[in-house]
């Protein structure tokens, strides 16, 4: 019973040495004090007959500008008391190894510091350019939009990227409002969407309304809910509970009421989200509806196979013209443009590229129209041409479906600039028009009336 009590009395107070440690609990303190390193050195010299000459003071560790972290510096420490001290040669070798490690660490630190400074300089320069460009856009271009939008100076400034503060305004003006939608009209369709959401379960027995079945409309509503949660998930602003969730839901819901013939198609949420980030709610809806009414977007979102094939054919004309090696490589695997272009066009690259880079693509798309969407696709292929030439069908499809995240605007836009949208002196619009003409003539030749 008194076992622990007796042990407690027998233990000497630990005044001279601190207790050691083991895996479970403390070990008893050592009664013998650890010897000083000088005493150990003297004993070793007396036993071996060797004399240790310390390295010159200039080589000793003092006032070192850079001290490596972790265990790097342990190489300079003396050995434990129960081992022989280092010899002169070993100490000098360790000193040299340590100095080399410090030198390498310094080089890395200096290199990283230079890299950080370069990034900061580029960032400051970019911010200065944006600030000066903003003044030009606000004071000169926007007040005289119709007269200046097509000038060479504005087009060059446009290519460099729009300042975020005027981006939404410029997009609205460039996209236009051919549909003559007003904020009041948006409110009407939004209220209809809200009524539909409320009576969602009650309308299952209703007949077709406006040529669209209830089942199709319900499918659109369900798809909207599902797609919103998958829209820019890394931003956490469009997901449920986020500040823009209800706003995005409203714009998409109102559009399904405004265009029941189109309804909601997967990918629309990304386009609407980008517009919401740059415009007020009603303005975002107006731009969204007009943007989706453009021939290219309407063909893709209505899944007009005939028109989509014409766009793919036009794309391949310029693909072969600009990147003949890669074009033949894709042909050898029967890799058609629809495998990678559909996702790019459906979301206007907002899902495939980093958001800031996608906005720059949108800038020039608003300036040049649908042609720039396909030119951007060719720019991406040019940027990764060397990598893609080494891949097979599966790896190419996977790579183009999920592009590298480290893609930069400078590299991509330099590749886009190198793409020539001209084939046999024909521009994109002329090539596409000739394909449409050939298609119409083919339809006439194969019509039942001509056969009879």
Automatic annotation (TrEMBL):
Single Gene Ontology MF annotation: small GTPase binding
Coiled-coil features, chain-numbered ranges: 88-123
GO BP: any one term: vesicle-mediated transport
Domain annotation Rab-GAP TBC: ranges: 161-369
A single cellular component GO annotation: vacuole
Keywords from the UniProt entry: Coiled coil
SUPFAM superfamilies noted in UniProt: Ypt/Rab-GAP domain of gyp1p
Pfam families (alphabetical): RabGAP-TBC
InterPro entries reported for this sequence: Rab-GAP-TBC_dom, Rab-GAP_TBC_sf, Rab_GAP_TBC_domain
Record protein name field: TBC1 domain family member 12
């Amino acid at each position: 019973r008194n076992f622990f009590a007796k042990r407690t009395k027998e233990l000497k107070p630990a005044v001279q040495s601190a207790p050691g440690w083991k895996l479970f609990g403390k070990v008893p303190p050592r009664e013998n004090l650890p010897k000083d390193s000088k005493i150990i050195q003297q004993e070793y010299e007396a036993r071996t007959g060797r004399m240790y000459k310390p390295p010159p003071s200039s080589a000793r560790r003092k006032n070192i500008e850079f001290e490596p972290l972790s265990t790097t510096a342990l190489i300079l420490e003396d050995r434990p008391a129960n081992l022989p001290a280092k010899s002169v040669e070993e100490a000098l070798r360790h000193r040299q190894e340590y100095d080399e490690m410090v030198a390498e660490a310094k080089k890395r630190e200096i290199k990283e510091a230079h890299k950080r400074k370069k990034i900061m300089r580029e960032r400051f320069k970019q911010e200065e350019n944006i600030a000066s460009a903003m003044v030009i856009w606000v004071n000169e271009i926007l007040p005289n939009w119709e007269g200046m939008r097509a000038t060479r100076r504005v087009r060059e400034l446009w290519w460099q990227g729009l300042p975020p503060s005027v981006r939404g305004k410029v997009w609205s003006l460039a996209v236009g409002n051919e549909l003559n939608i007003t904020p009041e009209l948006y409110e009407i369709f939004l209220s209809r969407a809200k009524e539909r959401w409320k009576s969602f379960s009650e309308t299952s027995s209703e007949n077709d309304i406006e040529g669209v079945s209830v089942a199709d409309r319900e499918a659109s509503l369900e798809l909207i809910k599902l797609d919103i949660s998958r829209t820019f998930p890394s931003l956490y602003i469009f997901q449920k509970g986020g500040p823009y969730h209800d706003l995005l839901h409203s714009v998409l819901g109102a559009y399904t009421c405004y265009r029941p013939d189109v309804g909601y198609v997967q990918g629309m949420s990304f386009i609407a989200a980008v517009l919401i980030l740059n415009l007020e709610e009603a303005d975002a809806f107006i731009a969204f509806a007009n943007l989706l009414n453009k021939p290219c977007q309407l063909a893709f979102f209505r899944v007009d196979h005939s028109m989509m094939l014409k766009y793919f054919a036009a794309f391949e004309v310029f693909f072969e013209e600009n990147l003949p090696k890669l074009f033949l490589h894709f042909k050898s695997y029967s890799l058609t443009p629809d495998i990678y272009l559909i996702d790019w066009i459906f979301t206007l690259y907002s899902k495939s590229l980093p958001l800031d880079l996608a906005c720059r693509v949108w800038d020039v798309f608003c300036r040049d129209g649908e042609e720039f969407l396909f030119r951007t696709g060719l720019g991406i292929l040019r940027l990764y041409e060397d990598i893609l030439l080494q891949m097979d069908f599966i790896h190419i499809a996977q790579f183009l479906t999920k592009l590298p995240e480290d893609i930069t605007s400078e590299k991509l836009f330099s590749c886009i600039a190198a793409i020539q949208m001209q084939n046999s002196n024909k521009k994109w619009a002329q090539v596409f028009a000739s394909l449409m003409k050939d298609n119409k003539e083919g339809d006439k030749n194969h019509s039942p009336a001509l056969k009879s």
